[in-house]
Amino acid sequence: MGKKIVIIGGVAAGPKAAVRVKRLMQDAEVTLVDQDSLISYGGCGIPYYVSGDVADEKELRSTSFHMLRDEFFFEKAKGVRTLTSTRAIAIDRTNKTVTVENVQSGEQGKLEYDQLLLATGSQPVILPIPGNSLDGVFTISDLHKAIEIKERIAKGQVGKAVIIGGGAIGLEMAEAFTDLWGVETTVVEFMDQLLPKAVGWTMATILTKHLREKNVEVFLGEAAEEILGEDGRVVGLKTSKRTIEADLIVMAAGVRPRAQLAVEAGLHVIPNGGIVVNERMQTSDPAIFAAGDCVEIVHLLTGKRFCAPFGSLANKEGRVAADNMAGIPSTFKGGVGSFIMKAFDISIGAVGLTLKAALAEGFDADVSLTSPSDRAHFFPGQDIVCFEMVFDRRSRRVLGLQGVGPMNDALSARLDAAAVALANSATIEDFSNIEMCYAPPFSAAIDAINAAGYVAENLCDGRMRQIGMADFYSWMDDYSSQPDWQVLDVRHPKQADPLVEALGEQIWMSLPYEQVRDRYEELPDDRTLIIFCNAGSRSYEIQVFLDSVGRKNTLVLPGGYNVIRRMGASWLP
Amino acid sequence: MGKKIVIIGGVAAGPKAAVRVKRLMQDAEVTLVDQDSLISYGGCGIPYYVSGDVADEKELRSTSFHMLRDEFFFEKAKGVRTLTSTRAIAIDRTNKTVTVENVQSGEQGKLEYDQLLLATGSQPVILPIPGNSLDGVFTISDLHKAIEIKERIAKGQVGKAVIIGGGAIGLEMAEAFTDLWGVETTVVEFMDQLLPKAVGWTMATILTKHLREKNVEVFLGEAAEEILGEDGRVVGLKTSKRTIEADLIVMAAGVRPRAQLAVEAGLHVIPNGGIVVNERMQTSDPAIFAAGDCVEIVHLLTGKRFCAPFGSLANKEGRVAADNMAGIPSTFKGGVGSFIMKAFDISIGAVGLTLKAALAEGFDADVSLTSPSDRAHFFPGQDIVCFEMVFDRRSRRVLGLQGVGPMNDALSARLDAAAVALANSATIEDFSNIEMCYAPPFSAAIDAINAAGYVAENLCDGRMRQIGMADFYSWMDDYSSQPDWQVLDVRHPKQADPLVEALGEQIWMSLPYEQVRDRYEELPDDRTLIIFCNAGSRSYEIQVFLDSVGRKNTLVLPGGYNVIRRMGASWLP
């Protein structure tokens, strides 16, 4: 018999490592332990199971060839001894044993290991507010919870739901509740925008508008203060601003690494954080590896450790751990935080840092906001994707890319290319020259990702001066804050006129793009002109021209009407 | 007045450079010259104009804000002097002038330049066969030709068409003819596969099958020998194997750089090839730049120069040329040959080298063939993408990625990520760890691109031994070529049995995956077992297991039934 390998945790990293290490060392005795009865499931698929897109929870735990990944599958097909409903309760590093306990019988036993993998995952944050243990309060922590939620909805027990937390899981659940089941759903987010860690305010505002159009109520900047109950069951949520009726509440306020076992074993763990591993996924004990949501990985842009609880990374980390347990010196160098989600008819996603995060990290950061077509603008079905590309002005390194697009793979294509580029320390100029495959049904001759690079170059080199979208919105709410500002709309009068009429020429004036070279002297020169078009490119061109004739008091509104239309505004006619 | 900039060629690189250089130097006198009356059009959109997807040719020459990009647009909106119907006939490098001629009046003149850009594009190869100038023989060289073809079809003058050449333009035209207009269309390709420069035989075979299902006849390995005419009009094509009736013939046998002007000016030009430029798009005369289809760029994998006639690269090259004319030291480092096209309901594309090209370049090349899902396999609407990843066994560098997928952006997303990776000299291991953004509606937890890396690792390290798809097909056509081979189908008996029945157990035997560990001793040990499943992953797992019990005489058929079903075969029940 070969090495004894014990793997604790059976969702993503654990099973991946188990089958890989078994393939690499067929003589190894590989034991997979999980406290749950259901293992090896696609946790990210839970919202689609709840929505009904995925009819049966078994689909989430089946292979692509429709075989159920239960303990028998792992034993028979994979040669991996699999102990479900078995909790690991202690690690004895000296004697290299793990004490396990059957969660039904309470029976205990010891598993010997030569090498151990901790793949204990993450656990949802439970907000310490009154009522948090009432019947009807859920976290999305495992498949059982998902099954129970779906059953309640299917039985008609849920007319109104509240999601606490505007992160990905919460929003995916909101869609599931609303779209198929018609549950009146409200999302309550403590921060002043949705997805605060992933995207900037502009992208988040587009998302908020879309959710509201799809009948999801969204309250931002509101703290959940108390969960209200009657007879032990949830009836509502009291926030810092209002009370919301609810038959069901999902706490989706983030996850934390499940690292207690590692802490108790004396391994190096970040306080209140994840297990520390090296590039080989080895913990501070060389015989113990860790992978998946329970570890902290290196952020390739900041060099700092961070938690990246994604099933995709868990699989990669699990595979690298398995390789190293089998003597193959594989490495996992870190991540750039690739993220994407579906929200009804749109996609929203990100890689790298937001502007806010980049500034907080001390970068000399700025952002290019663009709104190009996702494919040739003459191709039927083309749509707009809005992008924010964050870069460092000093080093010209690209730090992040966030975007919102239609519900297809156009956004993910750009994020994926960007992820590879970021991991290779790409500069703005590198982005300008990324060789996206081109044909009109798939992309534009100047691809969105290149265009983002172009704009960033122009900003970095001082050829383009812009106004931030948030500043523009502030001013539109209160003109007196900048009494000498005026919008110069260079779009066709058919597009500009409704705004000129609604807001008055002192706020919004029109001069078509192609007439500016002949008529620029008509423009006022005693105020700051905010140049406005559909996407920002005509505005930039006009700014450059006006600079050349000495009219330098202009700012471009990047992204233009394409972005504003998607964000919405009370002043839009 | 500032610098005098003359730009010859007004389709893609030329206009891009003209407007960029004007923006960078508003005081420059920029003159754009083109022999055609129509300029700045999306040439890659021509097939979609012919098909009717794009209703009006003007859409191909309009901005995203619906302004026609004609000479007035360039003058008024861009400040670029624009001379259409004006041919550049000679360059006087000593006196820095270009002699131009009005193609209608024959009137000649001279344009002075401080800097000159050649963006003269490419011209289609005219096959030197009898009948090549008959009425009804077309190339897709400009918009006028496209307009004439569409008119003939719309008037009902084209019942049958033949496309000579199975490259991208030919196939896109074949789709345009067949799909909307119902023209009986035949593609004749000299090589033994479609897209011979872009993809390998397996991917091309999938494409051929799909085209035939869509009523495009495809003849491979056939030379066009004579175009047959009556009364000066095309009536058919005689090939090396048959005569095909046709009212219209499109010669789509490739393009050549249009470099005559550069040759006559004594610039460094590859014989029968493109203009040689440095990273700044400067020719051998530092005052003369060149960009677009007329130049040869550096292939980032081979280091050699090659022609890459893509509108996307033309725009990038034009921009870099403009930067350098304006004193900004931008560089264009080369390309990896990103390519994609739509063919009815599928997408097919490539980056880097095919296996054949890699072997010809002297690499120790091999290929991993995979057939994963384009998104989570449980997500509604998921589909299969087939990939060939080419790599060098010695350096473990990835050399290319080719694929066929459904008609969405799933393939382009992987190709785009791969293009960035290839340009950064990525290894197989780098591909295994590319951080694709993950959510079930967009991708799988183990993304297709990572899976391709995994398989390549296993091949490179000798853990997986495979049989090439072409070798497998040869054997299926003639079992006697390898009398000791036998297929071991490890899929569910429901899937395997029809093949066992059709071909006999001596050729095709069944033993389900999950039973192999218990029943492997039943397997014959006197022959080579070709292990077969849906995608190749179960086959690999079984191979590894059989190795561990001393049964080492096995080969995996990579990609499995997913690929074979798409390729088609006479022996498939």
Automatic annotation (TrEMBL), chains A, B:
Residues 481-573 form the Rhodanese domain. SUPFAM superfamilies: FAD/NAD(P)-binding domain, FAD/NAD-linked reductases, dimerisation (C-terminal) domain, Rhodanese/Cell cycle control phosphatase. CDD domains: RHOD. Keywords: FAD, Flavoprotein, Oxidoreductase, Redox-active center. The keyword Flavoprotein applies. PROSITE patterns: RHODANESE_3. Its cofactor is FAD. It comes from the Bacteria. One of its GO terms (molecular function) is oxidoreductase activity. Pfam families: Pyr_redox_2 (PF07992), Pyr_redox_dim (PF02852). Belongs to the class-III pyridine nucleotide-disulfide oxidoreductase family. This is NADPH-dependent 2,4-dienoyl-CoA reductase, sulfur reductase. It comes from Desulfopila aestuarii DSM 18488.
